[in-house]
Automatic annotation (TrEMBL):
InterPro entries named among the record's database cross-references: MdtP/NodT-like
Protein name (record): TolC family protein
Gene3D superfamilies: Outer membrane efflux proteins (OEP) (1.20.1600.10)
A GO molecular function held by the record: efflux transmembrane transporter activity
């Protein structure tokens, strides 16, 4: 029976409505995800084929040196011990389920890539806006100072300082625009090279992030993490592999039919044979037991390591949330730029001091942007399993 994917994705509210549409488009068009789907179906069918009966063997003998010549036709079919097929079927079922979780791992990865790219887009747009504001302030100031220079109130050295500062800031803005184009192209690539309809390329605000308690994220990991589920399914499958190894020590059978014609004398009948695994099954049960134990330890380690990561990320997010809350009101003060311009025009500070102050304000704002970007990035990693909560990422027959 062919396996097909349920691709009617219902994205949980991780993003704004517009970005929800972006995610839907990516899930429909992403070639990596489509490849993962085809790989799943191929691997699932290959696994199911492992439990097929062996191909019948047909032998035809033509005997020349008998009176009247002769023909022998033999058809045989090899059959494992009956319990082997049931044990192998259960093993394959768990392996196929593990493959489904491998596909879900790719869904989680693609979802996180989209969310991260959108965070990158917000970050670069905020920095572009900051740089444009600085340039606007400095260009306005250059106009004022140019008039003062014409009246010989300031020197050419001061004018050149500001012109050099403007040049540097324009270069920074150009680099930011290049970075923005790269991010937009990366989103297009995630969408299979297709344009993304509804994408707001000038988005400059993050979605609100509200931290839940750490236990909820640990619970989500245990319930939804496909990596953890792969490890658990492999653990169950390897337990089943022990039973397969035990059945391998039971006899196999050969049944068939034989027809013989010698010089017009015909005869036919059944063939029954048995294979006794005296040598082929040695060490297989012990090997299967050791493999089962190894997989169990690996599954436990996946759980422990992921829980450690979640606790660490959560503690970091709490600390960042507190720092951002205290730092933001100190930095985002629109009066700074106006006060500095007024102080310069009144002669209270020099042009050199003005440029230094502007650089300090810019650096402080960028530090805030760095902190908020880091918070958003860690939040995506902490909530990466949310994409699976609605259950639409399953694969069914």
């Amino acid at each position: 029976m062919r396996y097909g994917l349920l691709l009617s994705v219902v994205i949980v509210p991780l993003l704004s409505v517009a970005n929800d549409g972006v995610m839907r488009q990516v899930f429909a068009n992403n070639p990596d995800l489509q490849s993962a789907r085809m790989t799943y179906e191929a691997d699932a069918l290959n696994l199911k084929a492992e439990n097929n009966l062996a191909d019948p063997e047909v032998e035809l003998a033509y005997l020349f040196d008998r009176p009247g010549k002769g023909i022998e036709l033999t058809v045989t079919e090899g059959i494992d011990w009956p319990g082997m097929y049931g044990a192998r079927k259960k093993y394959i079922k768990h392996q196929i389920t593990a493959l489904e979780y491998v596909y879900q791992t790719k869904c989680v990865e693609i979802s996180a890539n989209v969310r991260s790219a959108l965070i990158d887009l917000v970050d670069v747009n905020r920095r572009i806006a900051l740089q444009k504001r600085i340039l606007a302030e400095e260009e306005e100031l250059l106009g004022i100072l140019s008039e003062k220079y014409a009246d010989r109130e300031i020197s050419i050295i001061e004018i050149n300082k500001l012109r050099l500062e403007l040049f540097d800031n324009k270069a920074v803005l150009k680099d930011l625009n290049v970075r923005k184009n790269v991010i937009v192209e990366s989103l297009k690539t995630l969408n299979g090279g297709n344009e993304l309809s509804g994408l707001d390329v000038d988005i400059a605000d993050y979605d609100d992030r509200i931290l839940d308690n750490v236990d909820s994220y640990l619970s989500d990991f245990r319930q939804y993490s496909p990596e953890y589920k792969v490890a658990m399914q492999q653990r169950i499958a390897d337990n089943q592999a022990e039973k397969i190894a035990k059945f391998a020590n039971f006899p196999g059978f050969t049944v068939g039919y034989k027809y013989k014609d010698e010089g017009g004398e015909q005869a036919h009948g059944f063939i029954v044979g048995m294979s006794i695994p005296v040598f082929s099954g040695r060490h297989k049960i012990r090997a299967a037991k050791h493999q089962s134990l190894a997989t169990a330890y690996a599954a436990d380690n996946v759980g422990l390591q992921e829980e450690l990561r979640i606790r660490g990320d959560y503690a970091s997010l709490l600390a960042q949330e507190e720092m951002i809350g205290k730092y933001r009101p100190l930095v985002l003060n629109d009066e700074y730029y106006r006060l500095l311009a007024d102080a310069l025009n009144a002669g209270q500070i020099s042009l050199r001091d003005y440029i230094i102050e502007i650089r300090d304000i810019t650096a402080a704002t960028q530090r805030l942007y760095d902190m908020e970007y880091d918070f958003q990035t860690k939040y995506v990693d902490l909530t990466k399993y949310d994409i699976l909560k609605d259950g639409s990422m399953s694969i069914s027959e």
